[in-house]
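Cross-posting from the modeling subforum.

Setting up a comparison between two proteins and wanted a second pair of eyes on the formatting. Protein 1 (sequence, then structure tokens):
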Amino acid sequence: MKIDLRKLYGLKSLLIDESIKIPQELYTKMNVRSMSEVLVKGSISVNYENNIDLDLNLSGNFIMPCSITFEDVKVPFNCNVQSEILENELNDDFYLDLLDILWENIVLEIPFNVIKEGAEIKCLQGEGWELKRED
């Protein structure tokens, strides 16, 4: 998601309501099988120090494997991004690419494991092993 800095500095504020697609190579490393487009809503503005303030809401869905059955589980996420980007941190004079900032916040929403509703461990023993519950 690229923001035209000339337009942003000219208007001083932009309202955002877009869907973006996260590259597959980012989320497959995180045990996510697939990911819906991410809805990005909010505002981007230039503050009195000419730094850029982000106030965004991100929402979407992950598809992850169930830790018991390995079946697909849909996991919704919703997070807020409030950040300030310093003017001297901008790498490009014309565009601000928000993908890295958005991904850093989305990755915090990925659970370590998920269990599908109603999933049960059916096999409690095998050759040379047995699963016991400690009370």
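Protein 2 (same layout):
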Amino acid sequence: MPEANPQTIKPKTKPTPPPSAAAFFPNTETPAAFRDFAERSLSQAKDNYEKLKSAAEEATGVLEETYATASKGAADYGLKVIEIARTNTNATFDYASELFAAKSLSEVIELSTAHARKQFETLSTQSRELATLAQKVATEAAEPIKEGMTRAAKKVA
């Protein structure tokens, strides 16, 4: 394969922009009304761009805050689930130990009944705690969005 010689490679030229209207009509002047309209349009476009940029930055901030809040809430929820699992596992091991120490069938039935009743109450309490925590996490995660929408509505009004 032949190697490229740097002396034979020609640099690419940039395309020339199309000529402006002034090139075709050198002695004509743009009307003042047209210039004013163009200046107002440009000024309005700059203002709209700044508003859009500000709104985008604010939306980004709201999303970052929402994500941080939701992440913390999910971590709290996960820790609560682990705590509940640990509590239930310990209760099961305690129950198994009591069953192995039982001397009669009536004692096994009594232990089983007491354990079932206690676990039902515990699971009911744990379910309520998880539901409350999930509701709290959802409310806290939605709060930054709600505040952001309120601020946006105030800006528009």
